[in-house]
Design brief:
The complex is a heterotrimer. Chain B has helices spanning about 5-35, 55-65, 65-100, 105-110, 120-130, 135-145, 160-185, 190-200, 205-230, 235-240, 255-265, 270-300. Chain B is mostly helical. Chain B has a single domain, classed as MetI-like fold (Orthogonal Bundle). In chain B, helix 3 runs antiparallel to helix 9, helix 3 packs across helix 11 and helix 11 (about 255-265) runs antiparallel to helix 12. Chain C is an alpha/beta fold. Helices cover about 35% and strands about 15% of the residues of chain C. Chain C is globular, with a radius of gyration of 26 Å. The chains are: A mainly alpha, B mainly alpha, C alpha/beta. Chains in contact: A-B, A-C, B-C.
Chain lengths: ~300, ~300, ~575
């Protein structure tokens, strides 16, 4: 009997080993697929035009063959004219704007999301389900259709003045329309709903107000989800393209995505310098990746703890 | 629950509703109105715009355009293939991650990377990878003796282009789904799995009978939001194909791209109304599918 | 009237002045004879008055180029002398130039600001024409537009429907002359004329800029280019005897005529000689895979429709493509695609054919003059890819349907005949520059002076030689003023043109040193010569906004290009492609 048991244990262990190996191979393959575009971006950014056009493509480049020029040219200064001495491609300006916009819009979004999710998850009020359904429905409308009307609104609010637009105007115009997210309200509501009702009633008995309850109990419990939302939302500014291009009057107010498009296309012939373009793509992606690796533990912990259940 | 905190609830909702009223509901209402303007000239009359009445013919202009039907077809194929496929892949990955706790953190970080990036930058990288001559994909295919396929170029077939778009779309969307499913799995009570192991249930059975049902609310959430997202696909098309909306002109046009084609010419007579009509048609399509999905889910989802 | 003049000229503010200019102009309608330059050095002997006055023989300074037009240069035109407004003016200028070209533009802005220290020009790139146009359209609806902007004619057509663009005729015909009184200015004490000699602009460009309602100038040509054809001279030279046997003019060294472009018939005749017939290059026999690549399918459609006299669009905004000639043209193009006489770069997975021209996959390629350099094989290319190695490239005019304008012709593909009246035609493309009416009078005035500065004889030549665009002024071709291109190389535009002439006259056998800087500009010079010869049959694209049931000219151009791509791909037959185009352009 004991003999049989040991054998089963062995079989079980081998089976487990094989299945884990298969899983490992599968995950490894997917990981490779995920990583390759990043590698290719980096690789292309280090090639000159001739290397890029080579068939079959070059898979590895010795450091000696790296075309650093693609990167160096991004930091060239304007040789003459009123912008003399300023960088041709104002990478750091774009970066700073992006970070500021990202922070402001994230703080705003988290604030409105937490309050709204609390109302939907915990408070009972007339028309709650209807309102929630309406909000979900707004997710289904392509945002492109809002642009013109929103542009007119921004102008009425005085934030689009072609002669005297300030960074404050730009900041408000870029962030306010995006300070709400039904998507995150939906997400956070799920987490809030998980918190047992008993806690709420107990708090009520203790004379705690709704707001204190939200601050002292719900937010700490749902913190991982809120962190996740914060992280996810702060990526948004890195991807915004159309709206920032629309409502900025000056180059110095733009975000990184705007800089990526157009800057490396020959305006006369429409040809693009892929090497330079990829170099700037790497530069734009790099800060995000660095941030991710520095805060990896916090981010992944936040992400994996953000228990969301129906 | 209490019922008397009606006004307080609205107070909590106020910041969100106020912003949405200005930047979502008002433009939405406006879009409805504009979609029935006749001969709308937004720039005329000192920028106040002029119309010559109201009409539903803007909708028929949309329906009469051959490209609209191409856009509907592409959008549906993209949405109804990429959403389930990416959900299945990310489910497998999440379950796989659970069974190798040692390397979990490492893999999880990698899988999260597509989220930590700029989509235009990655779109450009994919375009380089899909290039017919010096692209990575064809180089790999050539190892297996497959001759070069035009994925995103001017002679690419519809299937090749859709394949490229699908790969890009799925690659982009995995990160968030894996994230949500991994954290969902974390929350499934260990008891269920222990019970299953005692019953000597196979991994597949456990997956089918425990994991999927217990994750069903999350799967539901993900599939609704992803479907909505996929029906609005636009950035991925632009990222991969540029303004041509396909290797062959228009061949990967989506509904939003179709709407956008009119919107960028909004200054011309009637164009903004066509764009608005197109957007509203998309709104109803999306609404229809979400409603259907919710109804199906009500019967299937395990709470 | 005189009293009014005296009164008004004492004011410094330009809004008063502009109003006055109108009045003055009607009195002395003759345009000024000064050519390009903005500045006129102070004539030392002239007594400066503060009143309308005549300055005899004023066209005498070094910065001025002699006019080349029939304008009566000897007649003194009365000038109204005024003090230049010197209160601060901010000009917002929107363009789309990326890092490559904005440097030279910035230099010119710098120079202009040094001339007018009270002016600040904020130039902003809006990254691409779509964004630029969309932002201006949005801006018009909220009264927030830049002072001036680049734009294609169809952009201006839309802006004009909203009354948003300033007419330039007032300035062009103005006889106001300002004295620069700011001691900080680099042209302190000198004179600046408002008016300019419009006759000095290349007529083909002008026609495009006053095609709008009322025949007014709402813009002036700025960065103009055309298409030319690059040919692989090595392959041509190899087949000289066979080519001559066809009756085609060719030199011993393989130079085709630079005055008489090839005809389609000649291209058809050349196809069996110069191409392998299989689509792949035969290096041994020196035969390419395809004969002629067209970089821009949009230009190909539009230009061929003119060469075929096939109705396309008109300035009323009517879409006229639904006709038998157009279908016949598309069928002909389809036959030429099949015969490998014509090819589009998408066959190689490219947007432009330059690379494959260098590789030897195609013997000739039609492309923008602004992209010359991309067609020249060199040591910088991966040598293994260059099937013919590094070969000599020559540039000739774009192929035509006929040798002489307006002559009937019948082409055949062996089975079908295509009869039509052929016309000579070459595209002209590139943005114009204009001013928005919302700006204050002072802003408009300096914006105008800036346009005048950018397009003056020297600067248009400098811009042309630096960027591959073409001068917009006739006087640039004859100007004696040397323009420094590098620190060691200075040339006039005429001498620049002479580079290719000399090379061609020597049949490509010149004894220039390897270090001779002329080598660097040889191809640009060839293109400039060819482009100049083509100016006589430049045709512009009618620009119009979309109407209630039809699209605008910009979309028409895009769909025209796609139409040819569909035919090339075999995704649609010529008639299906035409009907799809019709579906997209009318409803």
């Amino acid at each position: 009997m004991a003999e049989v048991f040991v054998k089963n244990e062995k079989v079980y262990k081998t089976q487990k080993f094989i299945s884990n190996l298969l899983i490992f191979i599968f995950l490894g393959f997917v990981a490779l697929v995920v990583l390759v575009p990043f590698y290719w971006m980096l690789l292309t950014s280090l090639k000159n035009t001739t290397m890029i056009e080579q068939v079959p493509p070059i898979f590895f480049l010795k450091p000696a063959d790296w075309e650093i020029e693609n990167y160096r040219s991004l930091f060239y200064l304007v040789p003459s004219g009123p912008r003399r001495g300023e960088p041709l491609f104002p990478f750091f300006t774009y970066m700073r704007n992006t970070i500021v916009v990202s922070i402001v819009s994230t703080v705003g979004t988290v604030l409105t999301t937490v309050l709204a999710a609390f109302a939907f998850a915990r408070l009972n009020f007339k028309g709650r389900d209807v309102l929630f359904a309406i909000l979900i429905a707004t997710m289904m409308i392509p945002g492109e259709i809002f642009i013109l009307t929103n542009f007119l609104t921004i102008n009425k609010l005085g934030w689009y003045d072609i002669m005297n637009q300030t960074f404050m105007d730009v900041l408000l115009a870029m962030t306010l329309p995006f300070m709400t997210s039904v998507f995150y309200v939906f997400y956070l509501r799920q987490t809030f709903k998980q918190i047992p009702n008993e806690l709420y009633y107990a708090a009520k008995v203790d004379g705690t107000t709704d707001f204190q309850y939200l601050l002292k109990i719900m937010i700490p419990i749902a913190l991982p989800t809120i962190i996740t939302i914060t992280i996810l939302n702060s990526m948004g500014a890195w991807n915004a393209y159309i709206w920032p291009a629309m409502i900025t009057t000056k180059d110095e107010f733009r975000l990184v995505s705007n800089g990526l498009r157009g800057a490396f296309t020959d305006s006369g012939t429409g040809r693009t310098d892929f090497g330079q373009q990829m170099a700037s793509a790497v530069l734009v992606t790099l800060p995000l990746l660095l941030m991710f690796f520095v805060f990896r533990k916090q981010i992944m912990r936040g992400v994996s703890r953000s228990g969301i259940k129906g | 629950m209490e019922t008397k905190n009606n006004w307080r609830a609205w107070l909590y909702l106020a910041p969100m509703l106020f912003l949405m009223a200005v930047f979502t509901f008002y433009p939405l209402f406006n879009a409805f109105v504009i979609s029935v303007y006749r001969d709308y000239l937004p720039l005329a009359n000192e920028g106040a715009g002029t119309i010559s009445g109201y009409t539903l013919s803007n909708y028929s202009v949309i329906f009469n355009n051959q490209l609209f039907w191409q856009a509907v077809l592409n959008t549906f194929v993209l949405a109804f293939v990429s959403v389930p496929v990416s959900i299945i892949i990310s489910l497998f990955i999440s379950v796989g991650l659970k069974s190798i706790p040692k390397l979990k953190g490492f893999f999880q970080s990698i899988f999260f990377l597509p989220y930590v990036t700029n989509s235009i930058a990655v779109g450009m990288a994919f375009a380089v990878m899909f290039h017919r001559n010096h692209g990575l994909f064809n180089a790999i295919l050539s190892w297996f003796g497959i001759s070069a396929i035009d994925w995103i170029g001017g002679t690419a077939t519809w299937w090749a282009q859709m394949g490229a778009l699908m790969i890009f779309t799925i690659w982009e969307s995995l990160a968030f789904k894996i994230l949500v499913f991994t954290s969902g799995l974390q929350n499934i009570d260990k008891q269920y799995y222990d019970a299953a192991r005692i019953d000597a249930a196979s991994k597949w059975t456990i997956f089918k009978r425990i994991t999927v049902p217990l994750l069903s609310p999350l799967i539901m959430y993900i599939s609704i939001t992803s479907l909505i997202g996929a029906l609005k696909a636009y950035n991925s098309v632009i990222g991969l194909f540029g303004e041509r909306l396909g290797g062959q002109p228009y061949s990967m046009i989506t509904i939003v791209a179709f709407v956008y084609k009119y919107r960028s010419d909004f200054a011309f007579q009637g164009y903004y109304s066509y764009a608005a009509a197109g957007a509203i048609i998309l709104f109803f399509i999306t609404l229809l599918f979400s409603a259907m999905q919710t109804m199906v889910a009500k019967r299937r989802v395990h709470y | 009237m005189k009293k009014l003049l005296i009164g008004l000229t004492t004011f410094l503010f330009a809004f008063a002045i502009i109003g006055c200019v109108d009045v003055v102009t009607t009195e002395t309608a003759a345009p000024t004879t000064t050519a390009a330059p903005t500045t006129t050095a102070a004539p030392t002997t002239t007594v400066v008055t503060t009143q309308g006055t005549t300055l005899p023989g004023e066209t005498t300074t070094v910065t001025e180029a002699p006019t080349t037009t029939a304008a009566p240069t000897t007649t003194a035109v009365p000038k109204v002398l005024m003090d230049l407004p010197d209160d601060p003016v901010e000009i917002v200028f929107w363009h789309i130039y990326g890092v490559d070209k904005s440097a030279l533009l910035d230099t010119m802005i710098d120079e202009f600001e040094a001339m007018f220290p009270n002016v600040t020009i904020t130039s902003t790139s809006q990254s691409d024409y779509n964004t630029l146009r969309e932002k201006i359209n949005l801006g018009i609806s909220v009264n927030q537009v830049p002072t001036m902007a680049l734009g294609y004619p169809d952009h201006y057509a839309a802006y004009i429907t909203a009354n948003a663009v300033a007419k330039l005729d007032t300035y062009i015909n103005s006889n106001v002359r300002y004295e620069v009184l700011d001691s900080q200015s680099t042209i302190f004490g000198q004179f600046v004329d408002v008016g300019l000699d419009i006759e000095d602009f290349v007529p083909g460009y002008l026609a495009e800029n006053n095609q709008y309602i009322g025949g007014f100038y709402y813009s002036l040509p700025y960065s103009k280019s055309t298409e030319t054809m690059a040919v692989n001279r090595m392959v041509l030279k190899h087949h000289v005897t066979a080519i001559r046997a066809l009756g085609i003019e060719i030199s011993d060294e393989g130079f085709l005529s630079h005055d008489n472009p090839l005809t389609f018939q000649q291209l058809q005749d050349l196809t069996p000689i110069l191409t392998s017939g299989t689509g792949t290059t035969n290096v041994g026999e020196k035969k390419c895979g395809y004969l002629l690549n067209y970089d821009s399918s949009g230009n190909m459609y539009i230009n061929m429709s003119r060469q075929f006299n096939a109705p396309y669009t008109n300035s009323l905004g009517e879409i006229l493509i639904d006709n038998a000639t157009t279908l016949s043209m598309l069928n002909y193009i389809n036959a030429m695609f099949n015969a490998k006489t014509f090819v589009l770069p998408i066959i190689w997975g490219q947007s432009y054919g330059s690379l494959n021209f260098k590789y030897g996959d195609v013997c000739m390629t039609v492309g923008s003059t602004a992209g010359v350099g991309y067609n020249i094989p060199s040591l910088a290319d991966t040598q293994a890819n260059l099937k013919f190695g590094i070969f000599d490239v020559d540039f000739v005019g774009v192929p035509q349907s006929v040798a002489e304008h307006n002559t009937p012709v019948t082409l055949t593909d062996g089975t079908n005949n295509y009869s039509f009246t052929g016309s000579l035609s070459a595209v002209q493309q590139g943005p114009n520059i204009g001013i928005f009416s919302r700006a204050t009078a002072n802003e408009k005035l300096f914006a105008w002076l800036f346009i005048k500065y950018l397009t003056n004889t020297d600067n248009t030549a400098r811009w042309a030689m630096d960027t591959g665009y073409l001068p917009v002024r006739l006087s640039a071709y004859t100007s004696e003023v040397g323009i420094p291109l590098t620190t060691t190389f200075t040339t006039t535009y005429a001498d620049f043109l002479e580079i290719a002439q000399e090379y061609w006259e020597a049949d490509g056998i010149v004894d220039w040193e390897v270090t001779d800087e002329r080598w660097d500009y040889l191809h640009s010079s060839m293109v400039a010569n060819v482009a100049r010869a083509q100016t006589q049959y430049y045709q512009y694209d009618p620009a119009f906004a979309a109407g209630a049931r039809s699209a605008g000219s910009a979309q028409a151009r895009v769909e025209a290009g796609y139409c040819l791509e569909f035919i090339f791909n075999k995704t649609r037959t010529p008639s299906a492609a035409l009907s799809f185009m019709k579906n997209q352009l009318t409803w």
